[in-house]
Amino acid sequence: MSLTRPSNPTEPGDAEVVRQTLDRARRAYYENPSGALIEAIRCHEFGRALDQPDLCARARALQGAISLHRGDLSGALAVAVEAERHAERSQDATAQTEVAALKAQLSFFTGAYAPAVSHAERALQLADSTGDHDLRIYARRATCLVFGNVGVRDWRDRLEELLELTIARADLWEEAISRNDIACWLQEEGDVCGAEAEIDRAVEVAERVPGANRFALAVVHSTRADIRLLAGRPQDALDDARRSIELLTAGGEPNPYVLGATVRAEVQARMALGQLDDARESGEDALALLGESVPRTRSLILNTLATALREAGRIEEAFDALARAAELERQAFRELSDLHLSLERANLEATAARRETDVLAAKNRQLEEAHAELERRATQLEGLQEQLREQAERDPLTGVHNRRFLSRALERLARERIPGPLSLAVLDLDHFKQINDQFGHATGDQVLVRAAGLLCDVLRSSDIVVRSGGEEFLVLMPSTDAHAATVCCQRIREAIHDEDWERISPGMFVTTSVGVATAEDPSNLDALISLADQRLYQAKHEGRDRVVGEDRGVRAA
């Protein structure tokens, strides 16, 4: 694929050498993006020296395609604008085809679907007009992303046409990817058996590709992982996903979109096999590999992890993963908005002679629709995030808050500087181990649930009830002095003492001991809890079923 520098880059034959080099680089960039990029940059330099706008346009279009392959939308947009300027100066159909294909992909990635389809159709028409079979295959391959996602009615026919072209050219690499795309279509149509048969053929063809075939194999193994998951074969799916990831990462620059989809399949397969910790490790490894690029793909991985963790009951970890995903969604929203605006400005500049006001209004409407859709997705994600936050901050048995919520509540109180003293009570159900031993743990759980309900019944809405573990509860009472806190805790003690516990189990009687402490400055929570704990132990020592406040114990007569 190497280009030999002409000794005098003004000879007519020199331009043909550059064109042939661009043809080879275009066919090879999926498997060797770094090598293709070097050739694209050199071809652009020769194009400028030869004053050939078609060569400059093609070289820049190839750079843009490589940038998209690497997940660099900003880089692709920058060279696409320059490629289009060169293409406007040229009547070369090949250059115009490659630029139109690049613009189709860029428009799709930035959410401008109508222009994406228009550019894609133009790329196909231009390619067909040349009669160049390799260019016709390239145009169809480049625009599969658009037509496959917008849902054109004749999508299956288009895929079959592309497959026939690849077989006629004896291009095993393209045939493997075409069979992969047909398998994806069959999968979406619900024909899992047909999809599996087709993807097996794709794998067999990809293995026979002469020369570089690592990316092709990675794609087909990734797709087969998804199909085998649907077929209920998680171990086979995991094997395919691991093989795909190995192939993608072997060269050090994995395609982020294929990697994201493959990691998702790996996580789902490991979940089906009960390997949650391995699934989480795989997801985090992929995030580290992607670094700061492609926030949408990283969000996809985190959302998959959050779903897996949530289904496994690990709510706090799911919440953390979802919070990270939400931030990445917001980052992706900002980046795509900026890219969309940049692309539309470039389009407007290229067509400045056309009714600029009407075009701008139409593009702005498309941008508003894209923004509305992204905001809707962000709102849905934030809603789910809030649900997970609520679950993560609730005790699953009693429904009252846990210590995680208490820490956040204290931070809020400190931040809002709520006036007045802060009181905190620590209460413990007396002889609770004996209740479990005598009546059973299931009955003990009923006692805890009812005790939590009684606490909520007698306390104010501003008070916070926390189950801190076992049979122990904390009650946080903002703007409450020592006397009022002791009176409040006495109501709690009486409610538990007077409750008809025999409704849960005959012969049952439950009491509670309470220690309460008050501070003018709530910043030192540990000291406050420690003091309340000491008073709880005092209440236990003095005979239980009592409240110990500032300097005295209180119990019923």
Word description of this protein:
With 557 residues, the protein is mainly α. Among the domains are: 292-350 and 357-392, Up-down Bundle (Methane Monooxygenase Hydroxylase, Chain G, domain 1); 403-554, Reverse transcriptase/Diguanylate cyclase domain (Alpha-Beta Plaits). Helices cover 71% and strands 6% of the residues. It has helices at 12-28, 33-50, 53-69, 73-88, 93-109, 113-130, 133-150, 155-168, 172-188, 192-207, 214-230, 234-250, 256-272, 276-290, 295-311, 315-350, 356-392, 403-416, 432-439, 441-458, 482-498, 525-541; strands spanning 422-429, 464-469, 472-478, 512-519, 547-548, 553-554. A six-stranded mixed sheet has the order 2-3-1-4-5-6, with helices on both faces. The protein is elongated and about 105 Å long. The termini are far apart.
